Amino acid sequence: MYAVVVSVPRRSFVRPLVVILLAIAAYALLRHKRTELVDFEVYRRAAIRALAAEPLYRPEDGHYQFKYLPAFAFVMAPFAWPTKEETEAIWFALCVLLLAFFVRLSLRALPDRRLSERRLVWLGLLLTAKFWVKELAFGQTNLLLGILLMGAVIAAQRNRRAFAGALVGLAVFVKPYAVLFVPWIAWAEGLGALAVFACVLIAGLALPAAAYGWSGNLDLIAAWYRTVTETTGPNLMLPENISLATMWAKWIGPGHTASALAVATALAASTAAGGVAWLRRKVAEPNYLEVGLLMVLVPLLSPQGWDYVLLLALPAFLCLVDRWRDMRVPWRLTIAAGIGLTSFTVFDLVGRFVYTHLMTMSVVTVGALILVGGLAHLRARSLA
Question: Is 1 within the bounds of a domain?
């Protein structure tokens, strides 16, 4: 008789175990400091209302009004039945898994990688730490959006254009500002992908009619638009708002001049994104950098662009860090400054006084614009 010894690599179960233990500890600490995942409660409340065919958009909800398209309330329906405590624990665990998946997809899609996977993982998590900590603490859905967008990139890389269009269509219902990626779909993937996107969008907009009826569904869409537009002004000057509109309003005060400068800056940033797309033939795989740049622009172009939405900038950070040695010293220093402004403007790190002044100066927005410039530089030099 011979004993058969099967060698199981320790890493195969040690890493998941460590992640699970850290997630449990993080959730325990979170519940010790917070009574609820405030943003997740918005989704859960909307799901309960949708299942009862009740109005979704109510001014009495105050700052925590539901601001997503009606179909997303039905997507969250599975979280309407268990108790609040159970659903919050499930959602937190799911978000931890989404974070790991988002990092994995961002690494997998990065073309012509220079650095090791381990180094990129740790650097990526470090540079986005303050964003995903807030994401998990609030119970947000930006991780799901990031996964859909990275999925669209991978689909484009594999020449599955229709699938890429469908994923961007689904992303709009997770976060409406995903419409920013429609020009990329049209330019990079063609009219076929754009048609699939349109079909998904139309189907998603029509879906709530099954519960509310056609006229009720139209009323919902009108109420959604009214909610989004009416809540923009009150949120404009909040410290964590990093939109271009907020940046200029904080610098020179709200008004027509600030609005005009915000539009001009947005056009300049969009032109840079267009220039990057125009030069796509200079590189073998252009989709990653193009989508990564647009993901940085999401919170800048959205009037309600909260700082933690820069979690979506993970692909941009990975690309810049991976190509770091290929850039000249002046650009390294410039991008290092941008990373410092975006990633390390942390309340617990710099203190209340400094943090308040830095957010008043919109330094995170400035840092994000520097990252956009760095990505454009990589494309101009055919590095990504």
Answer: no
